[in-house]
Design brief:
This protein has about 270 residues and is of the alpha/beta class. Helix content is about 30%, strand content about 20%. It has a single domain (about 5-210, about 235-265), classed as Stationary-phase Survival Protein Sure Homolog, Chain: A. α1 crosses α6. The protein is globular, with a radius of gyration of 18 Å.
């Protein structure tokens, strides 16, 4: 780690071998010195969880676009461990993604391991962005099971355009002063993104997801079942991330979790 380029830490929640992460890193290395530290398998829907008792072991990955490590931990673990143990200096920016599927509306944002990794970066005082791309409902499971590598031509093109847009956004963000508070830039791209428009500024919509767990057929356990109709049937507020998704527009919500401290109740 001796490049004159700004240092960028990349991570995700879909795993180190995710095709979406690898595509993003290939774009990021053009303008950044990139070190990747990502989970050794999928860690979706895990939020900002930190491992309390796990014995974490980073393993260097060969045949990657740049220096990379897998970690037997959560996305937030990856950011904390990398910043404290793997990097030779503080990163100029931390980029989490590209996530397989959207991360919009507050319930999914707060549940997302991709956003959770970015939150850990922000808690450490670093510039942080999370990136996600919508997938067609009828292709999602095939894409997920293939680790983001079995893609239709349309989705593959959208992924390439999304990765380029993320890299441009990261380059601009790295030039800005470090933000105050606990902020994350949360980018989302449509499944047919053509790269012609940059993400527009939005806010995170609200949404009631309902019961996430259902009995598995013929089994004695319950399992998480996500229903796309929760979003498809939701009332949409114009200007929100959900509105942008429905309009097929790339978006960025500048989330600031500092307000969750409750301090505002003491201000007049």
């Amino acid at each position: 780690m001796s490049s004159n380029k700004p240092l960028l830490l990349a991570t995700n929640d879909d795993g180190i071998q995710s095709g979406f992460l690898i595509t993003l890193v290939k774009e990021l290395v053009k303008d950044f010195e990139v070190v990747t530290c990502a989970p050794d398998g999928e860690r979706s829907w895990i939020g900002h969880a930190i491992s309390r008792n796990a014995k974490l072991i980073p393993k260097k990955i060969a045949d990657y676009p740049s220096l990379a490590y897998s970690l037997n931990g959560t996305p937030a673990d990856c950011v904390n461990l990398a910043c404290g143990n793997l990097l030779d200096r503080a990163p100029d920016i931390v980029v989490s993604g590209i996530n397989l599927g959207y991360n919009i509306t507050m319930p999914m944002i707060l549940s997302s391991g991709t956003v959770g990794a970015a939150m850990e970066a922000s808690l450490l005082g670093h510039r942080a962005m999370a990136c996600s791309m919508c997938l067609p409902n009828d292709e999602f499971e095939d894409v997920r099971k293939s680790g983001g590598k079995k893609l239709s031509k349309k989705v593959e093109k959208s992924l390439q355009n999304s990765a380029k847009a993320c890299a441009r956004y990261a380059k601009n963000m790295a030039d800005l002063g470090k933000p105050e508070g606990l902020s994350i830039h949360n980018l989302n791209f449509p499944s047919d993104y053509n790269g012609k428009k940059e993400p527009i500024l939005t806010f995170a919509d609200n949404l009631m997801l309902g019961n996430l767990f259902e009995p598995a057929s013929g089994q004695k356990y319950h399992q998480l079942v996500y229903r796309p109709e929760w979003l498809e049937e939701a009332e949409v507020e114009i200007g929100s991330d959900l509105w942008a998704l429905k309009e097929g527009i790339p978006s960025v919500s500048r989330l600031d979790f500092q307000g969750a401290s409750g301090k505002s109740y003491f201000e007049t």
